[in-house]
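User: Thanks for the earlier help. One more: DNA-directed RNA polymerase. Can you show the sequence and predicted structure together?

Assistant: Of course, both are below.
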Amino acid sequence: MSLLRLCAFAKCLGRRGFLQTPAVRTSFADDCQLCSSLRNRTGRRQITGTAVHNQRTNVSFVFPKKEDVRKRLPEHSQLLDVLEARVHQLLSHVTDVPHAQVPFHRPPSSKNIILSGISPNKQPQKVTDKPKSKVKADAKSLTSPWKQRISQEKKTRLIQQQHLRNVKIDPSKIMSSVHHDIAHKTIFLTPKKTATSTKIMSKVKKVSDKNDAKAAIPQTATSTVTKGAGEVSKKLSKMEQKPSKNSTKETTEEAAKMEKPKTSLRQKLNQKTTATCPQEGARGSASVEVRHSVRAYLEACLFSGNIDTGHSFLLKLHRMEDRRKHLNTDIYNILMSGWAKKGSLNNVGQLFILLEEAALKPNLGSYSAALECMGRWVTCPSKVITRCLDQMKKEGLSVDDLFSQCVFHHDEKDMVLKAVHAVHPEYQPQIQQTTSQFSLPLVNDFYTQRENHQYPKLHLTQAELLAGFKRQLSMELACTVTINSVEAAKPLTENMAKMREHLNNLNNQWHKTLLKAFREKKMILVKTSTKYQSLYPYLCLLEDKDYVNMMIQSISTLLPTGLTLTAYASSLGTRVYTKYCVLRKQQNQMVQKLGNIYKRYAQLLANNTQTYTTLPREHWCQLETEQNLGLRMEHGAEKGWPDVVTLKLGSYLVDLIVKNLKIRSDILNPAEKQALIPILYHMYTFRNFQQIGFIKPHPILTQILSDAVETTLTFDSYIMPMLCPPVPWTSASCGAYLLTPTNLTRAVDGGKQQDELEKCPNLDAVLDSLNTLGNCAWRINKPVLDIIVSVFNDRGSDKLNIPPPLSEAPQIPNLSFQDPANKAAERNKMRDEANNARKKRNEMHSLRMEALYKLSIANCLRDEIFWLPHNMDFRGRTYPCPPYFNHLGGDMARSILVFAEGKPLGPKGLDWLKLHLINLTGVKKKSSLQERLEYANTIMEDILDSADNPLDGRKWWMTADEPWQALACCMEIAKAVRSPDPTQFISGFPIHQDGSCNGLQHYAALGRDVIGATSVNLVPCDVPQDVYIGVAHQVEALRAEDAQTGLKVAQVLEGFISRKVVKQTVMTVVYGVTRYGGRLQIQKRLEEIDEFPKEYVWEASSYLVRLVFSALKEMFTGTRKIQDWLTESARLISKCGHTVEWVTPLGLPVIQPYFRRRTQVVNSPLQKINLHMHDINDKPDTVKQKNAFPPNFIHSLDSTHMMLTALHCNSAGLTFVSVHDCFWTHAYTVDMMNKVCREQFVNLHSQPILQELSESLLEKYCTELQSETYIKLKQHLAEVPETGNFDLHQVKESTYFFS
C-alpha cells in the first residue's frame, strides 16, 4: 500500500502544473509501469460512458473553470506540501525498490501551435505557468534513494519545461504521427528531426490529443478545404522555423539522459507491455464479432450521412480498453475514407493518432484516404504529400500496391492520383495481372494445354445479350419484381372481387399508418443515436416508404400457420440489407463500371464475335485489369451484417406492424361487434421443449388473402432466374448476380468457410466449373407448362403430384368439449382428428403455394431465355441460386425446362431420347440398353398417343415414375419421328445420365474393392448390376435362416422383402444414416404395404435394419474399413477440440460446421430472443463431427468428379449441367459426355486420395503431441486402410457406370 502511495505522489509531482492548466489533460499512460501493473492486478473497475466523459474520468483531474483556477492554486499548493510530508514519513519504512522516473514535459505556448483535430481558425487558450522551485528544508536530511530520484526528476522537468517554452513547432508535424513503435517513427507529414525533437514531438502530440474536449465530437470540416485552406497554407509556411543549434544540442543531451533506462525492472515492464500490445488478427471470436458489428455500424453511418455520429461512436470505443483491443486498422480506415471525401485533413490526422494510441499500423487503405484528402485540398503543400509517400516507402508499401489493392469509388482514384502527380507528375500506375500457378495434378494439363479446347458460345448475338443485361440490371436495382399469378386465369367471382377491393383498401390504409408510425418512432430514436449500436443509422439507409413497402409485402407472404419471430424478423432485416447493398453500389458508381465491363464480356459469349481461348473467369479478370475497375475488391469489401443486427432491425419493423396495423372485426361479417383488432399477433409456442416467440396472422386476414386470389405475386429480385449470363465467379465473393450480394458458399454458421475461400489461392478450377453450370441458357417448354397449369387450376392431382387447393383440404371439426355426453376417450379422439386435419391443411397450403410460385415464375419466363447462377455448399456440392424454380426441383419443374440452344439429334440422338423415356418410367431397370430400346419401339403407339392426347387419351405417361418428364419426352419423340429427317431434328431436350449408387461407387474405388465395384457397375457387364436387389437377396437369405430357427418376426416378413423396402436405407447408409434413421425408413416402406400386419411394423423394421447393415458389411468389406477409419479419425480430432478440415483434390478447403451452439440474448421491442449461434472458435460437436465426416468426405469427392467433368465437357464444346450425380446434356452429345465422365472418375481416383488425406491431417493436427489423445490420433491417422486389387481403368469400359 505504501508503494502505491509513493507512486501516486510521484505522479502528483509530475502533474503539479496540470492543476494550473485546465486546457490540458493527460491519461494513465503517464503512470509508472510498476504502479500500473499493480493497479491492474487489483482488478481496477472499467470506466465507461460517453467519449468526453471517458476523457475526463480516465485522468486524475477534472476540468476546472477559468475563474476558479486562481482560487484553487493555494489549496493545491497546501495539498502538495501535505503529500510530500507524508512521503517523507513513509520513506523510512520502505526498502530501496528500483523505480522508474516519471518525467513530464511541459507543452509550449499554444499560441504558436495548431493542434491536430482543431480548426486553424480556433487557437487554444494561452497557458502560462511558473514552476515551483521551493523545496522543503527537511527533505535535505533524507538519505534514501527516493529523495535523490524525486529531486532529479524535478530538475529534469524544470530544464525540459524551460526549453519547451523556447521551441517552435510546425503544426503539420503534430498531426502527422502515424504509429507508435520502439523507435518512435513519425508520419509522412514530419520532417527528419533529432532524437530529442522526436521525443518532444511525441510528448506534445499527447498533449494536443487531449487539449480540447470538442475534439471528441468532430464537426464536418468541409471548410478546411474551401474557406480555411488558404489560411492553413499560410500558417504552415510561417511556422517552418528550425530551433537554434545550441538549443538543439542542449535538448539532445537532456533527452539522452531522459531516454536512458533506469533499472532492469523498467525494461522488463516495457517488454511485458510490448508483448501484450494488441495486434491485428489475434483477437479470437469476440474480436471478429465486435469488428463485424462496428464495421456495419460505421458503414451505415457514412452511407446515411451521419459521419459525426460514427466518429463519436468510434471514439467512444477507442476510449474503452475492453473495446479498443478488438479494433483493427480497417475499422479506423472507414472513417478516414469518409473524412477524406469531405477534405477534412484534420480529422484524418486525428484518426492516425488514434491508430498510434491503439498500437496499430496504417495500411494501404489508411494512406489511400490520406492521399485522397490531400488531393481534394487545393493548396496542399507538396512537401506534405512527399512525406506521406516517403513514409509509405519506409513501411514497405508502394504506390502501385495502393492502386492495385485498394477499392476506389467515385473520383477517389482521381484524387489519389492528383496528389501523387503533385510531386511525381509523370507517374502512371503499373498494375500487373496476377497469373495463377496451377499446382494441382488433376487440372494442371487442363490449364496449360489448350490447343484443342473449343469453348462453346451462346446462340445469341451481342446486342441480344446486352438487352438482357439492361433488363436484369433494372430488376436488381428495383430489388423486387411483380409477376402475374397463374391463378389469375380463374374466372372472377363476386366474392373474389369483393375481397380484392377490401385488400386494396386495407393496403392503402396500412401504408399511411405504417409510414406515420415509422417516422414518429424514428424521431424518437434520434435522441438515442449516440448510444452504443443504436438502430437509428440503419433506419436512415433507405427512404421511409421503402421500409413500409417491405413490411406490407411481408404480410402478404406470411403463412396462415405463422412464422417464428426469429425467422420473420431475419427475413425483413435481410431485405433491408439487400436493398442497402444495391443502393450502395449504385452510389459508388459500380453500375457504370459493371456496364463497361459487361459490354466487352458479352463478346466472349456472343455468336457474332470472334472466338476467344480464355475462360469466362479469365476474360472478366483481364477486362477488370485493363480498365482498373476493381469490381472483385468492391464485392469482397462487403462483409454483410451480423445476425444480431439483422435480427434487431427486423424485430423493430415487426413490432411496428404488430402494434399499428389493425383491421375491423366486422369486415367479413357485419353482424359481428365492430372493433379494431391487430392483423398480426405475437404469441408464444413450444418447439423442442423450448418456448419461442411466434407471429401469426389473424384468421380474418388469412381468409381475405385466400379468397382474394391475388392476380400478382411480388418476389425479391434474386428469387427470379437471370435474364442475362451471370457475372462469372472470380473470387469467393464476386460472381452470380449483377448487384445482389451473393457468397460462393451457402450460409454456414461461423463463416470461416467463406474466409478460407477468400484466402485460398487454388480455387480457379472450382470457380470455372460453377461458371460452366451458370452459363447454360434455358427456356420454357410451353406445351407442357400449359397442361400443368390447367391441371393446377382444376383442383390439382395427387396422382400427378400437383397440390390441390385448400378447398379440397379436410375441414377442421368443431370440438364440443363442454358436451357431457362426450366421454374422455371421445374428446381425445376429436382432438386428434382436429390436429390431424389442421396439420393436413397446413401441409396442403405450403405445397400449393410452392407450386404456385414455380408455375407463376415459369409462366412469366415462357417467352424468355434465362440463366441459373450457381453456388455451392461447404462440401462443394453445387446448387442454383434461384430457390423456387430450377432444375434441382421435382418432376414438375424439370419437365418444363429445356436447353435454350438446340442441337441436331444426329445418328443416335433419337435412340437416347427413347432410352431416357424408359428410364423415366422406372421399368426395365434390370435390362440392357438394347432391350430397353426394343421395348420403347414396341410402345410407340402409347408414346404418340400420350403426346397427342395427354389428358384425354390412354394416359400411358401417367404410369411412369416421373410422369411429367415422361410426357415432355413423349412430345419430343413425337416431334422427332414426324420430322422429315430425325437425325437433323433440332432438339434442346436434356438427357440424363445417373450414377449407380454414386456414394458406394466412390467407396469401392477408394478401397479398390472388387466385389463392391462389381455391385455398383464399375466393372463392365452385359446387364446393369442393381446393388439394391443384391442387398435384398442377401437380406432375404439371412431372414430365411432366422425363420427356420422359429423367429416369429422373420416368419412374418416372408414375401415382403423387396428392392423398394431396402433401397433408401442402402442408398443413404453410405452417407451416414444411423440404424435409427434406417429403421424409420424401412418402417415407412412397410406401412405402405397394405397386406403387411401393422402390429409388426416396429419390430419388423428394427429387425430388417440390422440385416441390411450386416448384408452391406459382407458385400462391401473395403467400404466399411474406410468408413470406420474416417469415423474414428473424426472422433479423435474433435475430442482434441478441433473441427475436421480437409482439402479436396481440386483444392477446395472443407470445414465441417458442427459446433456446440451458444446462445446470445437479443433484446427486441417484442421480447428477448435467444439467438443460437455457432462459431468456428466454439467447441466442436463431437457426435456430429464424427458421424458427418464419412458422408461429407464422399460428397466432396462426388462434387470433385462433377466439376472435373464440367470443365472437360466445356472445353470440348458440350452443354453440361448436373443435379449432383446426375449429368445432363444434349441427346447428340451423350456419348461424348459419358466418355469424359468415366475418364475423369479414373483420373480422380488415380490420385492417392486416402494417403494425402492422412498426411494432411497428420500435419494439421499432430505437429505437437500434447496428450494421450493426440498420440492415439497420430497412430490412427498413420494406419491408412489397405486397398484391394481392383483395376480402376475398367471403369472406362463400363456401360452402366453412368446410364
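User: Great, one quick takeaway?

Assistant: The chain has a mean pLDDT of 78.
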